[in-house]
Structures are given as C-alpha cells and as structure tokens.
Amino acid sequence: xxxxxxxxxxxxxxxxxxxxxxxxxxxxxxxxxxxxxxxxxxxxxxxxxxxxxxxxxxxxxxxxxxxxxxxxxxxxxxxxxxxxxxxxxxxxxxxxxxxxxxxxxxxxxxxxxxxxxxxxxxxxxxxxxxxxxxxxxxxxxxxxxxxxxxxxxxxxxxxxxxxxxxxxxxxxxxxxxxxxxxxxxxxxxxxxxxxxxxxxxxxxxxxxxxxxxxxxxxxxxxxxxxxxxxxxxxxxxxxxxxxxxxxxx
Length: 249
Ligand SMILES: CC(C)(COP(=O)(O)OP(=O)(O)OC[C@H]1O[C@@H](n2cnc3c(N)ncnc32)[C@H](O)[C@@H]1OP(=O)(O)O)[C@@H](O)C(=O)NCCC(=O)NCCS
Hints:
- It is a single chain.
- Helices cover 38% and strands 22% of the residues.
- By secondary structure, it is α+β, with helices and mostly antiparallel strands.
- The chain has one domain (12-241): Gcn5-related N-acetyltransferase (GNAT) (Aminopeptidase, 3-Layer(aba) Sandwich), CATH 3.40.630.
- An 8-stranded mixed β-sheet has the order 1-2-3-4-5-6-8-7, with helices on both faces.
- Helix 2 packs antiparallel against helix 3 (60-75) and helix 8 packs antiparallel against helix 9 (236-248).
- It starts with a helix and ends with a helix.
C-alpha cells in the first residue's frame, strides 16, 4: 500500500538532455566549472545552504530558505522536472542555480545563490542556466523573478527582460519577467561566457566532490548593531540576538 501511494506522490520527470559542463576564467584568475548536480549530491549541497538562511544581508535568508526547500523537493521527488547546476572553483562550491521545465517551450527559473562574492560567479551561473533552457533543451522563453535589488540589476536590467506581469511566477506568485530567445541571443556575446569541453583534470576535480565554500556570506557578529544601524522594521535581528544570548546563558 505504502509503495503504491509513493508511485502516485512521486512525479515522473520528462526526459531532457543533460547540461554539458562548461568552464570560464574569473576576474581573479581562478577557473570555475559549471556542471549539473545529481540527486545523490543534494545532501552535500544542503549543508552549505543552511547557514545562509540566517544571513539577512542582500536577501540571502529568503533565497536560501527557498533554495533549501527546492533542493530537498528535488532530492525527495516532490517536484516535477527540476534540475540543479553547481559552480565550483577548485572543487569548492561557488554558486547554485536551479529551475524547472514547465513544458516544452517554457522554463521557470528558480534561484541563483552565490557563495563567493564579488567575482560575478552568480551572474555566470545564471547565464549557464539560461543556456541550458535555450540552447540545450531548446525552449522559447524562461520566466524569471528577482528577490533582491542585486538580482534585479543582474537579470532584469542586464538582460533587459520583458514584463510578463499577467503570469504569476512559481516563486510566491510574484509577477514574472521573461527572457525570450531574442533577448538571450542579444546577450550571447557579452553575458553568456565559458568554454567546452572542460579540461579533464578540472572536470575530475569538480566531480570528485562538492567542497565546503571557504568564504561564504555570514551574518554580522553583532546583530543588535545591525538592527540599530538598519532600523530593522521586522525585528528579526533583534529576535536572533535574544535567542543567541539565551543559548549562551
Ligand atoms: C544575486 C547574486 C546571485 C549575484 O551574484 P554575483 O553575480 O556573483 O554578484 P555579487 O553578489 O558577488 O556582487 C554583486 C554586487 O555586490 C557587491 N559586492 C561585491 N562583493 C561583495 C561582498 N563581498 N559583499 C557584499 N557585496 C559585495 C558588488 O558591488 C557587486 O556589484 P556590481 O553589480 O557592481 O558587480 C548574489 O548577490 C546572491 O546570491 N545574492 C543573494 C541571493 C539572491 O538575491 N539571489 C538572486 C535571487 S533573484
């Protein structure tokens, strides 16, 4: 009985071509590999997403908590047609991007999460996921939303996305924006960077394991100071400080 019910609960994914790994050189001189993560690797990734749930700065908290849920849903077969790509520098996790294929023509971009700042790793990982939808799977448009001002600058402004406000996005029902095939082609020479095939040693290192990010975003050490400085209307930092004090006590 339990087994039969699981058959109903578990969606059957549509077969799509896999993302072919690519690599690019960052402004720091480091090389970054972007590749597809398997379902079995999700628990490895989740342990690096969880701490970001407590980072309010730049909306890491809301994005991380949603990414956690999306990755868990993928791992436990509770979402249809999702994929996850990871960006790695020397094996270290640098960014996570994910999304979903709604139907043959339309893609739904979920999230982009950068675990190393200041190198456009998030921008490059996002470009790779757009490439997956457009060039590899052959879709006509991808629906996108932004949860942070940096995200808005990176996607809506840099790609000049079109409004599709009549379509509620799967992320909280917010009005959608669209990357069309034409907009993607316009960005090809500037925003979509990287090369294939990935050199063997680089690829082997990436597949050998997803290593802990060495410098991920962290919450401020003094949360009360952050509250005072930002005049935080939600009071979340205040609450977290009280919990921290209680735990210390
Ligand atoms: C949006 C995001 C993916 C962009 O990643 P990215 O392209 O690698 O860019 P960064 O976040 O490192 O840098 C963005 C800006 O932050 C600033 N920045 C750089 N280093 C920084 C640091 N160490 N700390 C804070 N800000 C920094 C820079 O001014 C940069 O400005 P620029 O746009 O002029 O380059 C990333 O900011 C992120 O994960 N944010 C939290 C989750 C989120 O909002 N995701 C998108 C959902 S729509």
